[in-house]
Design a protein that fits this description.
Catalytic activity: S-adenosyl-L-methionine = 1-aminocyclopropane-1-carboxylate + S-methyl-5'-thioadenosine + H(+)
CATH superfamily of the largest domain: Type I PLP-dependent aspartate aminotransferase-like (Major domain)
Largest sheet: 7 strands, mixed
Strand order of the largest sheet: 4-10-9-8-7-5-6
Protein name: 1-aminocyclopropane-1-carboxylate synthase
Cofactor: pyridoxal 5'-phosphate
Number of helices: 18
GO molecular function: 1-aminocyclopropane-1-carboxylate synthase activity; pyridoxal phosphate binding; transaminase activity
InterPro entries: Aminotransferase_I/II_large, Ethylene_sulfur-biosynth, NHTrfase_class1_PyrdxlP-BS, PyrdxlP-dep_Trfase, PyrdxlP-dep_Trfase_major, PyrdxlP-dep_Trfase_small
Strand content: 5-15%
Structural class: alpha/beta
């Protein structure tokens, strides 16, 4: 009775990434009401600077009240529905994007397409750039939601660019070439490469070498490059953030073919901590892409009221300068706090400089260096320790034992409790090891919820692991 799209299982909702959220929602931690509940460390939200936003709203009540010189704009905003967006908002957003990049590059508001968040922006670009069955290359590990955002409705395919912990999961020329050749073996036409810069889940910004490598690669293959830069304002320590647009400018590639094939995705969900406002954007130097994406944006518009409020906020230069600086300081402080706590338990992290999370190495805690071992450890951490973290296999990491752990979506007190729980867990594992004289396998008879883990999670992990082994032998 339903369509094939409605009944297919390609959304990715049964990934362990989303299943962890479901378990959290059944038993959420609350300091007073549910102190033994699950602490949500799988959600990349920025809740560290809400006081700055709320302070601005209190000091600018006319903006929140949709007034200008005591004249109500409510009716005008309520009736406005042009999918090109409010000019004032596009201007202020373009300026804000430049400010994040230290004004080393500027953005033309006419090249901006407004979308209902980065999810909509990425999907819209897929519709514009790829036909069903054509592919984009993505470096691993990558954001689990891309399986939904890029593929589910568009019919596009993803081919992984396998990156390794041996070089800090950096993109290499050989990895790009191998991914491109793998796509050809699968008879997939490659339409482009999509990267997140800074990376989700790694929490690292792309190096200048990687950016130049990507520009050279897409130029030689005559394909597109999408740079998802929604975490650009969260870079809290060196090396600083370098946008792909800055690379193109410094290489004098403006108004060239490759200039038109590079596209940026941006959002205010992470930098300003406003995921509920659903504010995203596509920036492209290709007039045809801008035109097509603008038409498609009518399926996911940003409300005029939201645009007006944020145009007022972002046009306040004193506020934006202070916010970006203070938010970065708080992120750095919280990042250091969590990683120092992890180090005390003997857990190390990939050296990061951005984002709302750390890429955490728990390989030494696995019962076996396999994705089965990773799943066993993940279930223990969720159900017994009471922490929802994201296993690397959900991010298509080719090496078992890595996890994404978020630190900016909770209070300092909650983070300390989370670290205490994890420390106690690691200590208990060490005691069992010392008592037996050998590593004990993790308990396979774990307490399970009614919605057990699907076979899909394990089949994906085994496929990824196999690919990783094949690369190690090359």
């Amino acid at each position: 009775m339903l369509s094939a799209k409605a009944t297919c299982n390609s959304h990715g909702q049964d990934s362990s990434y989303f299943l962890g959220w479901e378990e959290y929602e059944k038993h959420p931690y609350h300091q007073l009401k549910n102190p033994n509940g699950i602490i949500q460390m799988g959600l990349a939200e920025n809740q560290l600077s809400f006081d700055l936003l709320e302070s601005w709203l209190q000091n600018n009540p006319h903006s929140a009240g949709f007034k200008n010189d005591n004249h109500s704009l409510f009716k005008e905003l309520a009736l406005f529905q042009d999918y090109h967006g409010l000019p004032a908002f596009k201007n202020s957003l373009a300026d804000f994007m430049s400010e994040i990049r230290a004004n080393k590059v500027t953005f033309d508001p006419n090249n901006l397409v407004l979308t209902a968040g980065a999810t909509s922006a990425n999907e819209t670009l897929m519709f514009c750039l790829a036909n069903p069955g054509e592919a984009f290359l993505l470096p691993t590990p990558y954001y689990p939601g891309f399986d939904r955002d890029l593929k589910w409705r568009t019919g596009a395919e993803i081919v992984p660019i396998h990156c390794s912990s041996s070089n800090g999961f950096r993109i290499t020329e050989s990895a790009l070439t191998e991914a491109y050749e793998e796509a050809q073996k699968q008879n997939l036409k490659v339409k482009g490469v999509l990267v997140t810069n800074p990376s989700n889940p790694l929490g690292t910004s792309l190096s200048l070498h990687e950016l130049n490598l990507l520009v050279d690669f897409v130029s030689s293959k005559n394909i597109h490059l999408i740079s998802d830069e929604i975490y650009s304002g969260t870079v809290f320590c060196s090396p600083g953030f370098v946008s792909i647009m800055e690379v193109l400018k410094n290489r004098n590639l403006m108004n060239t073919d490759v200039w038109k094939r590079v596209h940026i995705v941006y959002s205010l969900s992470k930098d300003l901590g406003l995921p509920g406002f659903r504010v995203g954007a596509i920036y492209s130097n290709d007039d045809m892409v801008v035109s097509a994406a603008t038409k498609m944006s009518s399926f996911g518009l940003i409300s005029s009221q939201t645009q007006y409020l944020l145009s007022e906020m972002l046009s306040d230069k004193k506020f934006t300068r202070n916010y970006l600086s203070e938010n970065r300081r708080r992120l750095k402080q919280r990042h250091e706090m969590m990683e120092k706590a992890l180090q005390k338990t003997g857990i190390r992290c990939l050296k990061g400089n951005a984002g709302l999370f750390s890429w955490v190495d728990m390989r030494h805690l696995l019962s076996s260096q396999t994705f089965e071992g990773e799943m066993e450890l993940w279930k223990k951490i969720v159900y017994e320790v009471g922490l929802n973290i994201s296993p690397g296999s959900s991010c298509h990491c080719s090496e078992p034992g890595w996890f994404r752990v978020c630190f900016a979506n909770m209070s300092k007190e909650t983070l300390l409790i989370a670290m205490q729980r994890l420390s106690s867990f690691v200590d208990s594992m060490a005691k069992k090891h010392n008592q037996s004289g050998r590593r004990q396998p993790l308990n396979r008879n774990l307490r399970r919820s009614k919605s057990s883990l699907p076979k899909w999670v394990f089949s994906l992990s085994f496929t990824t692991a196999k690919s990783g082994k094949e690369r190690c032998q090359m």
